[in-house]
Structures are given as C-alpha cells and as structure tokens.
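Supplementary Text 2. Reproducibility record for the structural model of the 229-residue chain.

All settings were left at their defaults, and a single model was retained for analysis rather than an ensemble. We include the record here because the model underlies the residue-level annotations in Supplementary Table 4.
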Amino acid sequence: MPLLAACLLGLAGAVPAQAAAVSETGYRYWSFWEGEDGSWVYATQGPGTARPSDGDVLGFRFAVSTGTPDAAQPRGEASFAAVCQDGDGGEGGGSGDRVAVVIDFGTAADAPDGASPPEPRSVCAPLSEGATAAEVLAEVAEPLRYSPEGLLCAVGGYPETGCAEPVEVEDDGEPSGEDAGADAGEPAGSAADGGGGDGGGSGAAVAAGVAVVALLAGAALWRARARRA
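Retained model, structure tokens:
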C-alpha cells in the first residue's frame, strides 16, 4: 500500500466520523492584514519581514479560525485617511512618514478562558526608514509576545498566555462548547510556527504545520502495523 494512502487510512481510523462531520480544528491566533483600496487583504508576509510605506494600512486581528480563507478580518476601517488625519504626526509626533495601524483584539467567543478582550484600537503611527510592520506595531502596542519560532502570540499583552492553540470549531464557525474560551495553556511548539521566525504568520501556515505532524503520526502507525504483519 502506498505510504500516503496508508497514512490517510490510519488518520481516518483515528478520528470518529461523526465528530469530523460536526466540527473541525481551528486555531486561536493573531492574523496580519494590509489595507488595499479600502478593503482588508490577508498579508503575504509576516510582520517581521513586511516593510510598509508611507500611507499604508496595517491590520492585526485576534480570532479563532480554520485557515486563511475564513480568517476574521479587523473590524476597523482599512483606510489611511480614516485613521491618520491631516497634520497628525502619529503617536511619536513630527511630520514624517506615517502608517495607519488597526488592532482588533477579537470577541468574547474568541477569547481564552477568563480573558476579556480590550476594545479595538486605530493608531496613526510614525514610520521610521526601513522599519518592519513588527517594529511599527511594537511602537504603538507593547508589550508584544512571540513564540520561540517567531509567531506573534500577543499584542498589547493580550492574551497573557497561549499561542495558536488548537480549538474545535463548529460548522457555524464558532468555537465548540468546551473550547469557547478554553484555557490558553502554554505557547505552542513548532506545529504553530506560522511565521518562519519572521515575527508572525498566516493561519494556513499554522494549519499546515499541524497537518504535517498528523501525517507523520499516520506514517508511524502504518509502519508499526507493517512490522506486526
């Protein structure tokens, strides 16, 4: 039997069919967005490598989602003019380059157990020459927290713990009962590395990392059965 087919069969046998039909695994994490023509577009780089220009709009949203296509967008306007008024030099003052930063801490349904998400913020931030999006964010929303792999885990100290932990998501997109506001626990390991050490990453990368772990587990199960046979 081909290795990939064996892995899939092993995984199928390990997951109850009824549960798979009712819910799927999502992740509670910060996603990174960019404003384009007044709309939010999922960033193609992590904030640690993206270098914004004067007049750009950066968005950060904390939520539970199952991947990039369904990731919750920031609820603030993706508009530089809506955040940075004429003559506004940003939090650092002055009249140099600026970027609009929209920070959405998510809803109560997305929050870890016992946490209360802060109100969304929109900030006109000064932009230093060559600064990354992560450096801009650090100027206006400290403290930030990262995983050892470089995934953005907390903005403005929220949440206090956890990093891209898996959450069971119902068909309606909401966290299931036991995972709605589940305990965040400790920061996730390499399976949650969505940024490749660049200070952030996408939900697709988070999910892909976990998929690789699942595939390896299936391969190990197939090898063990082959030895017994």
